[in-house]
Protein backbone atom coordinates (compact mmCIF):
# COMPACT_ATOMS: atom_id res chain seq x y z
CA UNK A 1 0.00 0.00 0.00
CA UNK A 2 1.29 3.42 -0.99
CA UNK A 3 1.21 6.33 1.49
CA UNK A 4 0.74 9.88 0.20
CA UNK A 5 0.47 11.97 3.33
CA UNK A 6 0.67 11.32 7.06
CA UNK A 7 -0.79 13.12 10.00
CA UNK A 8 1.86 11.63 12.26
CA UNK A 9 5.13 12.47 10.55
CA UNK A 10 7.06 13.20 13.74
CA UNK A 11 5.10 11.12 16.21
CA UNK A 12 4.17 8.03 14.24
CA UNK A 13 4.74 5.73 17.17
CA UNK A 14 2.50 7.60 19.57
CA UNK A 15 -1.04 6.51 20.23
CA UNK A 16 -4.00 8.79 20.61
CA UNK A 17 -5.28 8.39 24.14
CA UNK A 18 -8.94 8.47 24.99
CA UNK A 19 -10.38 10.34 27.91
CA UNK A 20 -10.33 8.51 31.21
CA UNK A 21 -11.95 5.15 30.60
CA UNK A 22 -15.59 5.06 31.63
CA UNK A 23 -16.77 1.70 32.87
CA UNK A 24 -20.24 0.63 31.77
CA UNK A 25 -22.87 -0.33 34.38
CA UNK A 26 -22.23 -4.00 33.60
CA UNK A 27 -18.68 -3.89 34.98
CA UNK A 28 -17.97 -5.68 38.21
CA UNK A 29 -20.94 -8.04 38.11
CA UNK A 30 -21.71 -11.38 36.53
CA UNK A 31 -22.51 -11.21 32.82
CA UNK A 32 -26.21 -10.78 32.13
CA UNK A 33 -25.96 -11.56 28.40
CA UNK A 34 -24.43 -14.58 26.69
CA UNK A 35 -22.87 -15.03 23.28
CA UNK A 36 -25.35 -15.73 20.51
CA UNK A 37 -28.60 -14.31 19.19
CA UNK A 38 -30.67 -11.78 21.14
CA UNK A 39 -33.97 -10.01 20.53
CA UNK A 40 -34.72 -6.51 21.78
CA UNK A 41 -37.85 -4.38 21.65
CA UNK A 42 -37.22 -1.02 19.99
CA UNK A 43 -40.30 1.21 20.12
CA UNK A 44 -42.60 -1.75 19.57
CA UNK A 45 -40.46 -3.54 16.96
CA UNK A 46 -38.58 -6.74 17.65
CA UNK A 47 -35.00 -6.38 16.44
CA UNK A 48 -32.23 -8.98 16.53
CA UNK A 49 -28.49 -8.97 17.04
CA UNK A 50 -25.73 -11.51 17.61
CA UNK A 51 -23.08 -11.13 20.30
CA UNK A 52 -19.55 -12.52 20.19
CA UNK A 53 -17.85 -12.41 23.58
CA UNK A 54 -14.13 -12.74 24.30
CA UNK A 55 -12.87 -16.09 25.49
CA UNK A 56 -12.73 -16.11 29.29
CA UNK A 57 -14.82 -12.93 29.49
CA UNK A 58 -14.15 -11.08 32.77
CA UNK A 59 -16.58 -8.55 34.31
CA UNK A 60 -13.55 -6.76 35.72
CA UNK A 61 -12.05 -5.93 32.32
CA UNK A 62 -13.38 -3.08 30.18
CA UNK A 63 -13.73 -4.27 26.59
CA UNK A 64 -14.03 -2.40 23.32
CA UNK A 65 -17.52 -2.58 21.81
CA UNK A 66 -17.46 -3.07 18.03
CA UNK A 67 -20.58 -3.06 15.84
CA UNK A 68 -20.24 -4.88 12.50
CA UNK A 69 -23.08 -4.12 10.07
CA UNK A 70 -24.03 -6.23 7.05
CA UNK A 71 -24.56 -5.08 3.47
CA UNK A 72 -27.82 -5.06 1.50
CA UNK A 73 -29.22 -8.58 1.43
CA UNK A 74 -26.93 -9.76 4.19
CA UNK A 75 -27.78 -10.62 7.78
CA UNK A 76 -26.39 -10.69 11.28
CA UNK A 77 -25.68 -14.41 10.84
CA UNK A 78 -23.82 -13.83 7.58
CA UNK A 79 -21.47 -11.37 9.30
CA UNK A 80 -21.00 -13.71 12.25
CA UNK A 81 -20.24 -16.68 10.00
CA UNK A 82 -18.57 -14.89 7.11
CA UNK A 83 -19.88 -14.86 3.55
CA UNK A 84 -20.80 -12.52 0.68
CA UNK A 85 -17.11 -11.74 0.35
CA UNK A 86 -16.52 -10.97 4.02
CA UNK A 87 -14.64 -12.77 6.74
CA UNK A 88 -16.48 -13.29 10.07
CA UNK A 89 -16.95 -9.90 11.70
CA UNK A 90 -14.89 -8.39 8.86
CA UNK A 91 -11.80 -10.30 10.01
CA UNK A 92 -11.47 -8.37 13.27
CA UNK A 93 -11.72 -11.01 16.06
CA UNK A 94 -8.29 -12.63 15.50
CA UNK A 95 -6.72 -9.17 15.54
CA UNK A 96 -8.63 -8.18 18.68
CA UNK A 97 -7.18 -11.13 20.60
CA UNK A 98 -10.09 -11.19 23.08
CA UNK A 99 -10.01 -7.45 23.74
CA UNK A 100 -13.42 -6.67 22.24
CA UNK A 101 -17.10 -7.55 22.32
CA UNK A 102 -18.54 -7.82 18.80
CA UNK A 103 -22.12 -7.04 17.85
CA UNK A 104 -23.66 -8.13 14.55
CA UNK A 105 -27.10 -6.52 14.19
CA UNK A 106 -29.84 -7.59 11.78
CA UNK A 107 -31.21 -4.99 9.41
CA UNK A 108 -34.76 -4.98 8.10
CA UNK A 109 -36.60 -4.83 4.80
CA UNK A 110 -38.64 -1.75 5.74
CA UNK A 111 -37.21 1.32 4.03
CA UNK A 112 -34.49 -0.70 2.33
CA UNK A 113 -33.92 -1.31 -1.38
CA UNK A 114 -35.10 -4.19 -3.61
CA UNK A 115 -37.15 -5.74 -0.78
CA UNK A 116 -33.91 -6.93 0.81
CA UNK A 117 -32.54 -6.63 4.33
CA UNK A 118 -30.71 -3.36 4.90
CA UNK A 119 -30.46 -0.13 6.84
CA UNK A 120 -33.09 2.25 5.49
CA UNK A 121 -33.11 4.03 8.87
CA UNK A 122 -36.59 5.43 8.27
CA UNK A 123 -37.28 8.10 10.86
CA UNK A 124 -33.97 7.24 12.51
CA UNK A 125 -35.22 3.83 13.62
CA UNK A 126 -31.90 2.07 12.99
CA UNK A 127 -30.12 4.70 15.08
CA UNK A 128 -32.70 4.02 17.80
CA UNK A 129 -31.87 0.31 17.45
CA UNK A 130 -28.19 1.03 18.04
CA UNK A 131 -29.01 3.18 21.06
CA UNK A 132 -31.08 0.33 22.50
CA UNK A 133 -28.34 -2.24 21.89
CA UNK A 134 -25.75 -0.04 23.58
CA UNK A 135 -27.99 0.42 26.61
CA UNK A 136 -28.79 -3.30 26.91
CA UNK A 137 -25.27 -4.57 26.28
CA UNK A 138 -23.51 -2.08 28.53
CA UNK A 139 -25.94 -2.74 31.39
CA UNK A 140 -25.16 -6.45 31.13
CA UNK A 141 -21.46 -6.55 30.20
CA UNK A 142 -18.28 -4.63 30.98
CA UNK A 143 -17.48 -2.11 28.24
CA UNK A 144 -15.14 0.85 28.01
CA UNK A 145 -17.70 3.47 26.98
CA UNK A 146 -14.95 5.54 25.39
CA UNK A 147 -14.10 2.72 22.96
CA UNK A 148 -17.22 2.11 20.90
CA UNK A 149 -16.68 1.49 17.19
CA UNK A 150 -18.78 0.75 14.11
CA UNK A 151 -17.88 -0.67 10.73
CA UNK A 152 -19.58 -2.22 7.74
CA UNK A 153 -19.49 -2.73 3.99
CA UNK A 154 -21.82 -0.98 1.52
CA UNK A 155 -25.14 -0.50 3.37
CA UNK A 156 -23.23 -1.44 6.52
CA UNK A 157 -20.90 1.45 5.76
CA UNK A 158 -23.91 3.70 5.19
CA UNK A 159 -25.35 3.03 8.65
CA UNK A 160 -21.87 3.55 10.14
CA UNK A 161 -21.81 6.95 8.41
CA UNK A 162 -25.31 7.68 9.75
CA UNK A 163 -23.97 6.94 13.24
CA UNK A 164 -21.08 9.34 12.61
CA UNK A 165 -23.67 11.98 11.77
CA UNK A 166 -26.13 11.32 14.59
CA UNK A 167 -23.97 9.84 17.35
CA UNK A 168 -20.46 11.24 16.94
CA UNK A 169 -20.24 11.74 20.71
CA UNK A 170 -21.05 8.08 21.39
CA UNK A 171 -18.57 6.44 19.00
CA UNK A 172 -14.79 6.76 19.07
CA UNK A 173 -14.40 5.86 15.41
CA UNK A 174 -16.16 4.39 12.40
CA UNK A 175 -14.89 2.29 9.51
CA UNK A 176 -16.77 2.87 6.25
CA UNK A 177 -16.05 0.20 3.65
CA UNK A 178 -17.29 1.23 0.19
CA UNK A 179 -20.22 2.99 1.83
CA UNK A 180 -22.55 5.84 1.00
CA UNK A 181 -25.29 8.02 2.40
CA UNK A 182 -28.25 5.64 1.91
CA UNK A 183 -29.02 5.53 5.66
CA UNK A 184 -29.17 9.31 5.82
CA UNK A 185 -27.15 11.84 7.77
CA UNK A 186 -28.96 13.70 10.52
CA UNK A 187 -28.14 17.38 10.22
CA UNK A 188 -26.39 16.87 6.87
CA UNK A 189 -22.96 16.29 8.40
CA UNK A 190 -21.43 14.61 11.47
CA UNK A 191 -22.69 16.14 14.72
CA UNK A 192 -19.09 16.59 15.85
CA UNK A 193 -15.61 15.37 14.98
CA UNK A 194 -15.30 11.60 14.73
CA UNK A 195 -12.27 9.50 13.85
CA UNK A 196 -12.89 7.77 10.53
CA UNK A 197 -11.29 5.07 8.41
CA UNK A 198 -12.73 4.86 4.90
CA UNK A 199 -11.90 2.76 1.86
CA UNK A 200 -13.47 2.75 -1.62
CA UNK A 201 -12.80 1.22 -5.02
CA UNK A 202 -12.06 3.62 -7.87
CA UNK A 203 -14.23 1.54 -10.23
CA UNK A 204 -17.12 0.92 -7.82
CA UNK A 205 -20.10 0.21 -10.07
CA UNK A 206 -22.68 0.14 -7.24
CA UNK A 207 -21.84 3.13 -5.03
CA UNK A 208 -19.98 5.65 -7.15
CA UNK A 209 -16.74 6.81 -5.59
CA UNK A 210 -17.45 10.48 -6.33
CA UNK A 211 -21.11 10.82 -5.40
CA UNK A 212 -20.91 8.41 -2.47
CA UNK A 213 -17.37 7.69 -1.25
CA UNK A 214 -15.70 11.06 -1.70
CA UNK A 215 -18.89 12.97 -0.90
CA UNK A 216 -19.23 11.50 2.59
CA UNK A 217 -15.47 11.65 3.14
CA UNK A 218 -15.53 15.38 2.47
CA UNK A 219 -18.26 15.98 5.06
CA UNK A 220 -16.13 14.14 7.61
CA UNK A 221 -12.88 15.99 6.91
CA UNK A 222 -14.83 19.25 7.16
CA UNK A 223 -16.38 18.22 10.49
CA UNK A 224 -12.95 17.19 11.77
CA UNK A 225 -11.24 20.36 10.52
CA UNK A 226 -8.80 18.45 8.31
CA UNK A 227 -7.03 19.97 5.32
CA UNK A 228 -8.09 18.49 1.95
CA UNK A 229 -5.48 16.88 -0.29
CA UNK A 230 -5.13 18.09 -3.88
CA UNK A 231 -4.86 16.78 -6.48
CA UNK A 232 -7.22 13.94 -5.59
CA UNK A 233 -5.12 10.82 -4.82
CA UNK A 234 -5.47 7.78 -7.08
CA UNK A 235 -4.50 4.12 -6.64
CA UNK A 236 -1.08 3.13 -7.88
CA UNK A 237 -1.63 0.19 -10.20
CA UNK A 238 -2.33 -2.90 -8.14
CA UNK A 239 -1.49 -1.17 -4.85
CA UNK A 240 -4.01 0.82 -2.81
CA UNK A 241 -3.15 4.40 -1.89
CA UNK A 242 -3.58 5.50 1.73
CA UNK A 243 -3.95 9.11 2.86
CA UNK A 244 -3.91 10.29 6.47
CA UNK A 245 -5.21 13.84 6.45
CA UNK A 246 -3.37 16.71 8.14
CA UNK A 247 -4.63 19.35 10.56
CA UNK A 248 -7.55 17.28 11.88
CA UNK A 249 -8.94 18.09 15.31
CA UNK A 250 -6.72 16.57 17.98
CA UNK A 251 -7.66 12.94 18.50
CA UNK A 252 -9.91 12.73 15.43
CA UNK A 253 -7.82 11.45 12.51
CA UNK A 254 -9.24 10.61 9.10
CA UNK A 255 -7.75 7.94 6.84
CA UNK A 256 -8.85 7.43 3.22
CA UNK A 257 -7.80 4.42 1.17
CA UNK A 258 -8.52 4.23 -2.54
CA UNK A 259 -7.96 1.00 -4.45
CA UNK A 260 -8.23 0.01 -8.10
CA UNK A 261 -11.28 -2.17 -7.80
CA UNK A 262 -15.04 -2.51 -7.83
CA UNK A 263 -17.67 -2.82 -5.09
CA UNK A 264 -16.06 -5.32 -2.76
CA UNK A 265 -15.15 -5.76 0.91
CA UNK A 266 -12.44 -8.25 0.01
CA UNK A 267 -9.85 -6.18 -1.84
CA UNK A 268 -6.22 -7.15 -1.22
CA UNK A 269 -3.10 -5.63 -2.74
CA UNK A 270 -1.21 -7.72 -5.28
CA UNK A 271 0.78 -10.40 -3.50
CA UNK A 272 -1.52 -10.46 -0.46
CA UNK A 273 -4.29 -12.98 0.08
CA UNK A 274 -5.83 -11.33 3.15
CA UNK A 275 -8.40 -8.56 2.57
CA UNK A 276 -7.00 -5.25 3.77
CA UNK A 277 -10.17 -3.95 5.46
CA UNK A 278 -9.83 -5.83 8.75
CA UNK A 279 -6.13 -5.19 9.41
CA UNK A 280 -6.42 -1.56 8.27
CA UNK A 281 -9.39 -0.76 10.49
CA UNK A 282 -7.91 -2.62 13.44
CA UNK A 283 -4.66 -0.68 13.12
CA UNK A 284 -6.68 2.53 12.91
CA UNK A 285 -8.81 1.90 16.00
CA UNK A 286 -5.89 0.54 18.03
CA UNK A 287 -4.35 4.02 18.20
CA UNK A 288 -7.07 5.01 20.70
CA UNK A 289 -6.12 2.49 23.38
From TrEMBL:
<keyword id="KW-0964">Secreted</keyword>
<comment type="function">
    <text>Involved in degradation of plant cell walls. Hydrolyzes the feruloyl-arabinose ester bond in arabinoxylans, and the feruloyl-galactose ester bond in pectin. Active against paranitrophenyl-acetate, methyl ferulate and wheat arabinoxylan.</text>
</comment>
<dbReference type="GO" id="GO:0045493">
    <property type="term" value="P:xylan catabolic process"/>
</dbReference>
<comment type="similarity">
    <text>Belongs to the faeC family.</text>
</comment>
<protein>
    <recommendedName>
        <fullName>Feruloyl esterase C</fullName>
        <ecNumber>3.1.1.73</ecNumber>
    </recommendedName>
</protein>
<keyword id="KW-0624">Polysaccharide degradation</keyword>
<keyword id="KW-0119">Carbohydrate metabolism</keyword>
<dbReference type="GO" id="GO:0030600">
    <property type="term" value="F:feruloyl esterase activity"/>
</dbReference>
<dbReference type="GO" id="GO:0005576">
    <property type="term" value="C:extracellular region"/>
</dbReference>
<keyword id="KW-0732">Signal</keyword>
<dbReference type="InterPro" id="IPR029058">
    <property type="entry name" value="AB_hydrolase_fold"/>
</dbReference>
<dbReference type="InterPro" id="IPR043595">
    <property type="entry name" value="FaeB/C/D"/>
</dbReference>
<keyword id="KW-0378">Hydrolase</keyword>
<keyword id="KW-0858">Xylan degradation</keyword>
<feature type="signal peptide">
    <location>
        <begin position="1"/>
        <end position="23"/>
    </location>
</feature>
Amino acid sequence: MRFIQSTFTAVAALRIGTAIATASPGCGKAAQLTAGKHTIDVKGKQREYILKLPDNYSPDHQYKLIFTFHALGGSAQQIADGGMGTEPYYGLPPLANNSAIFVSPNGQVAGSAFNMMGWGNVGGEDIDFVDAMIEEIEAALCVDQGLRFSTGFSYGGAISYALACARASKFRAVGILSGGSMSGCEGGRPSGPIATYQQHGSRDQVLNIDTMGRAIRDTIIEANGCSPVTPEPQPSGNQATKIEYKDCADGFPVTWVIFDGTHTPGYADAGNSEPMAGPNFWQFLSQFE
